[in-house]
Amino acid sequence: MEKKLFDYVIGNPPYQQDSVGANESDTPLYHFFYQSANQIADKYELISPARFLFNAGATPKNWNEEMLNDEHFKVLSYEPKSSVIFSNTDIKGGVAITYHDSSKKYGAIGAFTAFDELNSIKKKVELFGENSLSDVVTNRGIYRYSPLAYKECPEELAKTADARIAPSAFERMPKLFTDTKPNDRYEYVQIFGLVKGERFYKWFRKDYVKEVPNLYKYKVMIPKANGSGAIGEVLSTPLCGTPLCGFTETFISIGETDSKDEAEATLKYVKTKFARAMLGILKVTQNNAKPTWKYVPLQDFTSSSDIDWSKSVHEIDLQLYRKYGLDEKEIEFIETHVKEMA
């Protein structure tokens, strides 16, 4: 058969595989088309979900990094609202039109931001060389059942798939999680979670929780996911957790301290427009997980800080603008794009 050569190939491949069974997450496929196009063509242009540009979503992290560091790859257009391009379609993180030319160097993207102002703010913050707030953000599911819980309550623990205290634990295990503190010889802690979307504290035996230092500290508790990933959206009511208070897998926490004042300072910082603008660099889906806080600079939350944490959230924002040398255009961008939190 005679070999056929093509100048152009135009197609409309699927970008994900629908979830099956109990799995609620669809599996992305679009990275396979990027990989195939790269193998067969010197130049290609694709339109796909944009989550990978923020190193988010379920595409392989090593592939995300490879694309973000490919100097032959660039973004022609980014649209955060997928319905603008594909009507009646909601693709979290938006849609990107990308181009790759192996004969040209565009410079590696590194960290993609959809706004010039946000990119310039990021560069100014990086000059300070400060650690990231993600360093003090917990991963999901840090509270787990202890071996003793499995030994003494096998029937109840048989209701859960793994050792993490799941969001549904309150409803599935009413014998273990109680509204009132039992009057017996055991020591109890409180676990923070949800029942039918409402927040509750439940009492739980302390020796049934696997040891974790976070339990004994003040911390800021925040849902592991909220919103849509739109730039500047509010976070779903973060609050301070006290010592001997843990939380279900619905939540993560920020900071661990023996000082209530430092925890309250952390809470104010999380509420600032500045911190949430920096969070918006990587938070493009509902996910608030640890990696999304990478570009939010860590602050000194003690009384020795260069920020006066006794001030209001808005006044703290003004201090942060001055600290990082933001100009009027950058300040206006944050003030107009990021919603206020009380």
Mind telling me the C-alpha Rg? Answer: 23 Å
Low-pLDDT runs of 5+ residues are none
Q: Strand fraction band?
A: 15-25%
**H and E string:** EEHEHEEHHHHEEEEEEHHHH
Mean of all residue-level pLDDT scores: 92
Tell me the structural class. Answer: alpha+beta
Spatial strand arrangement across the major sheet? 3-5-4
Major sheet: size, sense and barrel closure? 3 strands, antiparallel
Number of DSSP E strands: 11
Distance from N terminus to C terminus (CA atoms, Å) equals 71 Å
Helix content: 10-25%
Shape: globular
What does this protein look like?
- The chain has 342 residues and is α+β, with helices and mostly antiparallel strands.
- It has 10 helices and 11 strands.
- The strands form 4 sheets. The protein has a 3-stranded antiparallel sheet, covered by helices on one side. The protein has a 3-stranded mixed sheet with strand order 7-6-10, with no helix packed on it. A 3-stranded antiparallel sheet has the order 9-8-11, covered by helices on one side.
- The termini are far apart.
- The relative contact order is 0.12.
SSE arrangement:
Blueprint: E1 16-17, E2 27-28, H1 30-40, E3 43-49, H2 61-68, E4 73-79, E5 95-101, H3 116-126, H4 147-152, H5 154-157, H6 169-172, E6 188-195, E7 198-205, E8 218-223, E9 239-241, E10 245-247, E11 251-257, H7 260-271, H8 273-279, H9 313-323, H10 328-337
Parallel strand pairs: 6-10
Antiparallel strand pairs: 1-2, 3-5, 4-5, 6-7, 8-9, 8-11
